[in-house]
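Quick one - inputs below.
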Amino acid sequence: MASGLGLKSEAYVQVEDIHKIYPDGVQALRGVTLDFQRGEVHGLLGENGAGKSTLMRILFGQIRPTGGRILIDGSQVDFDSPRDAISHRIGMVFQHFMLVSTFTGFQNIMLGLETGRGSKSQEEVRTSATALADRLALKVDFDELVDNMPMGERQRVEILKLLVRNVDLLILDEPTSALTPFETEELLKVMRRLKEEGKTIVFVTHKLREALSACDRITVMRKGMKVDTVTSKSVDLRSLARMMVGRDVLPEMRKSVPNFGKVLLDVRNLVAVSDAGREAVRGVSFQVREGEIFGIAGVAGNGQKELVEVVTGLRKAESGSVQVSGMEIAGRSPQEIYDLGLAHIPEDRLSRGVVLPLSVKDNLLLGLQFRPKFEHRMMVKERAVEENARDLIRAFSITATEESPVKSLSGGNIQRVVVAREFSKSPHLIVASQPTTGLDISATQFVRGELLKMRDEGKGVLLVSSELEEVMGLSDTMAVMYEGQFMGVKRPEELASDEVGLMMGGVKVEQ
Amino acid sequence: MSEILVDPIIFVSLAFGAIRSMIPLLLGSVGEVTLERSGLINMGIEGIMLMSAFASAYGSWTTGNPLIGLVYGVMVGAILGFLYGYLSMKMRADQVVMGLGLTTFSLGLTEVLTVAVWTTYGYGKSVTRMPSLLTITFGNLAYEISAFLPLSLAIAIGAYYVLHKTKYGLIIRSCGENALAADAAGIDVPMVRYLVSIFAGILFGLAGTYIAIDWNNIFIRGMTGGRGWVSIALVIFSGWNPLAAIGGSILFGFFDTLQYWVAASLGASLLPAQVPRMIPYVVTVVALAAFGKRVKGPAEAGKPYVKE
Amino acid sequence: MLSGDRVGKVLQSVAIIAFGFIVSGIIMLSVGYDPVAAYSAMFLGSAEKGMQGAFGGIYGITSTLREASFTILTGLAAQVAFSAGVFNVGVEGAMYLGAFVSFMCAYIFSAPAGSVLGIMHALFCIFAAMVAGLLWMCIPAFLKVKRGAHEVVTTIMLNYVATYLTELLVVKFFLPITGIPPGGIITPEISKSAEIPQVDFMGAKLNLGIVPTILVAVVMYVVIKKSVLGYSIRVVGANPNAAKYAGIDVAKIILLVMLVGGAMGGLAGAIAVQFTEYRFDQSFSPGYGISGIPVALIGRLDVLGIILAGVFISALHVGAQSIQPVTGMPSQISLFIEGVIVFAAAMPGAFDLLKAYVKPKGGKNE
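Output:
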């Protein structure tokens, strides 16, 4: 893999040994060095947590690095804010567009441009924007409200915003995640045209095919480090996948022999739509049985969130059926579904999982307050609540007393509270969504251990996680979700690591 | 009631009364519209208006010059407006509670200061009024037109123009619609909100000044009579649009003036005096009921913006 | 009873009050008054002027206790609403409606005073007042739940409407009987059977309104702290999302807390009419309903705290009456101090700053 390309003297923008350690100890970037040339489309490939977004946000001035430097044409620069970066002709289009949806396309382009003496008037900006749009064939209706624009057009507004500000290096963060295939094609054409004008495009993605077809060079990142930089001509899907995912994916988390029982969750041809109105789940079918952990891997944003919301009753399915313990859940409220024996460890634990100002014991009561164990003639059985809290605190090693307000707990302990509460509902089926994000090692191991315990006790677990190791290590059966579909459903042991990488990058693997 | 429409004198009377009542409501609502467009809410308008009313009366009293009173009133409004914005943003103060506090505080403080300055309780001494712009005679009745009328109309139209037709308006509105996007576009969101807080405060100060030394010529306890709260309702009623606020405040002004007219002319024989006095408040509640949820205001209004 | 958390809350309340007094004192100084004289007049009275202040003598104390029923009740009403995240500023209106209805029931009907029927009459009037307050509160409550109308503005507007409405009714029906009185707009007296007499106490009269007030406070304490309903209310106030998740009907809870606040306001109105004035006096409330907010804020949403805060605020009001004759400052100074207190209570950020300053090692448990 030749990496001697891009001799320093030709390099336009270089990042040298960039480190980023967060105050809570998380190491997002461990010394990354790479360079971008003029007139190139440079792919940045990696899965969730690889560090690509963090690196780009540092380049865009949104985050300060804890080490390393950035050089433009050989001289070091220090960015204080995105405004700084833009004035140095570096701009970024985020995955979730930063547009004011109630403004028109043109108003969004105008927004934040220099005002005051010597600045361009609205007419001047309009003229230059129109010229740019024409020259690069960026079809945008300047006077249409962004709210009414399809995703592809919104993206073009974002790109125009940058071009009007004379940006030469454009970072596109997962740009195709919200686009239809046709819009994706259009985008790739736009990128090519920009490249011909001498601009540099950094194309951040986890999609292998697109990286290969659109980019001149690709840098693969994993776990905060650069794996390698290669030319797209010199690699194929499989080798890219292997680089992205690594040879050493460890499936060795102690599991007893599987002993599957009845079907607890039966999903058939599920179709669901996201908040933005696009199809997020496009015909998914699978089953979770007693004593089984069914894992869904995949980069976040491929429909996992919507799938979980349908199963837990927070979202209506467009079509298809979902049955929990044999009962169809369509039309049921979350509470009714819990009564069927489902427990949910939610993805956003702070907003949905706990009530921060209340105490641990009150949080452990949430959702259980009407049960006879805790209620007698409309009054709360205080002693039962306290005992319950103490038992759970002990059983789940929560570092707090039952009276501590949950908001003073660490992330790991908060998740222990959520897990404790959900498991105390004696569920048959547990839906765990990104259960270890933001947790330290011991909390992470704890949560994983608990899920395994549940499985060994004959419960069913639906595990949704963008952390591949976790899914591969815990699951009896796993699927990889990509753009709303399962790319393959297999036992983890049967999957070669490059196969997984392929699936996560969008390539279906034969069953 | 049909006499009202038929008798030109009464009609004109009412019309001028409506205009008089409209002015503080228009100023208050335009100020609040602009503020909410930038992403903040001020629930203490009533208090700010009252303090400005007092300050303007005091200014006119000590110097004998109502223009100085105007300056005092506007300054007090600007300072309080800024303070409110500052505390909302920096201290993450609860905007509703702070507004209530400010209002109660103003009621109390103005009482104390009234006694301190004029040694009378509940009302001050007469001060020099603002000169009127021109006087129109209808038959044998003369009606004064205040300078505040063209001023407030100009402000409303100007605010609309700036908000909806200029770059600066875009910047302000982006802070209220999507502060994150505004920040990503390089806008200093807190600074914008500070400036708008001052602007809104100035308008509230003008409203209070008008009530004290233009409409009347004296400071009286609680003379703002709930107009600050009505302004908040007007903001919703007008759909956060300064031009629509003109229409809305004329309407509300009409109801407000009805009470004076009834009290002055017919009295209990036609309608008990309390009924027209109730009308502005009832209308406000009805307006909120009708428009409460349907109209979508600036998305960020009321949510403190914390920089990452 | 006493826990670290509680001590923290008490300290916060004390800090808020201290802040209120200090800032008010500064302003008083700048205007030329003596804050020390003012505060001592407020709380201890001044013998030479014949005023007792809030605690300076038996008249003062009984007055403070009498006022306390109102402040505690309105504080409780505000507190129960706060617990669910709702701002109920409309207790004043409910009070007026309740007072008027209590008066009407007490005036129109009568029974032999002191008999069983008489006692039932009195209780009936109180009950009717509470129902009236509750019904009045239905307006802003349903508007909020069904139409999303902001409860602060609607309730404040309705307060004005309530005062005018009751005034209208009194003027229309009773003025011909009483004539134009020097004391303001009042009605004739109510039937004896509905009166709850004041009790002789150490030379002064003790108002029994404090009794139902404490009763209500106790009930509130039990409900909020110990019942499943109270738990649901607290969850709704802290995190409506999680509440929905836990199967709680958020809209129902919001309605409930507002209506209960209305009933409490109605009770306060009944106390004004049947325990205190024995008639309907249009000016009976110098803004009790609004005082409920500072009481709830100082009391920090804790029933015991509310009782103490209610007594404190009532002391403020009663003491303020002494200020005028003694120092010349108007009695509305109490409003001013209250306002500053509410202001201070509005700023959690200030407390966090203070805490960080005092305890530099701020950090989470691990």
